[in-house]
Design a protein that fits this description.
With about 290 residues, the protein is an alpha/beta fold. Helix content is about 30%, strand content about 25%. It is globular and about 50 Å long. A hairpin with a 2-residue loop joins strand 5 and strand 6. The two termini are about 35 Å apart. The strands form two sheets. It has a seven-stranded mixed sheet with strand order 1-11-10-4-9-8-7, sandwiched between helices. Strands 3-2-5-6 form a four-stranded antiparallel sheet, with helices on one face. Helix 4 packs across helix 5. The longest helix has 18 residues. The chain has nine helices and eleven strands. It has one domain: P-loop containing nucleotide triphosphate hydrolases (Rossmann fold, 3-Layer(aba) Sandwich).
């Protein structure tokens, strides 16, 4: 990887570099986040400034406690900074109310989590529909959007299956479809391959790359795995609440080229017998 400036400017040489009329999707200005734990203050972020432009695919890396999860929560409008300003699509969202932030999440941001967070007694189609219910979408439109989203991740034929009938990779694809159903401009994924085997992890990265390359969706993932970060276009490394590196990925891994080199997995069999299919929790969908 080729190290660039850590000032927050988009690294040179990328096709998403700033041009007239191409404003950043995400702009953080001196973001500070401090948690008060009784007499102890935890400084999670210490003056972070960065910009992410439309169509970028960014991996956020760092050890536990580095600040990467706090950063993701702020970018996803799940938390607010103690100080500093966060501009999303040019709007300062730093001081908005919880209700206003929830509306922005529903309209602009799709979330994918490590634990899938699918409702166990609800079909794949119904799980994908959930964000459209919170957004007040009409019933007929909900079903159309949900089926279209499942088709985009290759699970159209599984819409009636429950999570326990799906493999871990299929569950994560349902979660990605759910994140896409409201047509967000930004997709945030927190350790999306953390519970998956090597091949299935690459399959998930293939979906992210296609969403980014073919549809122009801005993608930001948090990962501690260097090999997973190699599928992104740009990587940021955090340590002690500060961004230490901001680099362009050189010799980027292409998932569609890696997949033929890996052993295949019979997902139909995996789903039917329950192998590699951890019971999902009835996750909180309030992120939408």
């Amino acid at each position: 990887m080729d190290q660039r400036s850590t000032t927050g400017q988009v690294p040179s040489g990328t096709k998403t570099a700033e041009t007239p009329g191409n404003a950043p999707t995400i702009r953080l200005e001196n973001i500070v986040k401090t948690y008060d734990l009784g007499e102890v203050q935890v400084h999670a972020l210490r003056g972070v400034s960065l910009e992410i432009y439309p169509g970028e695919f960014v991996a956020v890396m760092g050890a536990s406690g580095s600040g990467k999860s706090t950063l993701m929560n702020i970018i996803g409008c799940l938390d607010k900074p103690t100080r500093g300003h966060y501009f999303l699509d040019g709007k300062d969202v730093s001081g908005l109310t919880k209700r206003e932030l929830a509306k922005i999440r529903s309209q602009k941001i799709g979330f994918v989590f490590q634990q899938f967070n699918l409702l166990s007694r609800t079909s794949a189609l119904e799980n994908v529909e959930l964000p459209t219910i919170y957004a007040g979408v009409a019933i007929e439109e909900r079903e159309r959007r949900a089926r279209e989203a499942l088709q985009r991740v290759g699970l159209a034929e599984r819409e009636g299956h429950f999570p326990s009938q799906l493999s871990g990779g299929q569950q994560q694809r349902v979660a990605i479809a759910r994140a896409l159903v409201n047509n967000p401009s930004l997709l945030l994924a927190d350790e999306p391959t953390g519970n998956l085997d090597s091949r299935t992890s690459v399959e998930i990265m293939d979906i992210f790359q296609k969403l980014n390359d073919e549809h122009g969706l801005t993608v930001v993932i948090v990962t501690h795995e260097t090999d997973i970060a190699q599928y992104a276009k740009r990587a940021m490394e955090f340590r002690d609440g500060k961004m230490k590196k901001d680099v362009v990925i050189q010799n980027r891994s292409i998932a569609s080229e890696v997949l033929p080199t890996l052993p295949s997995i019979d997902e139909d069999l995996v789903g039917d017998i329950g192998v590699e299919s951890p019971q999902p929790s009835n996750g909180d969908t309030s992120a939408k």
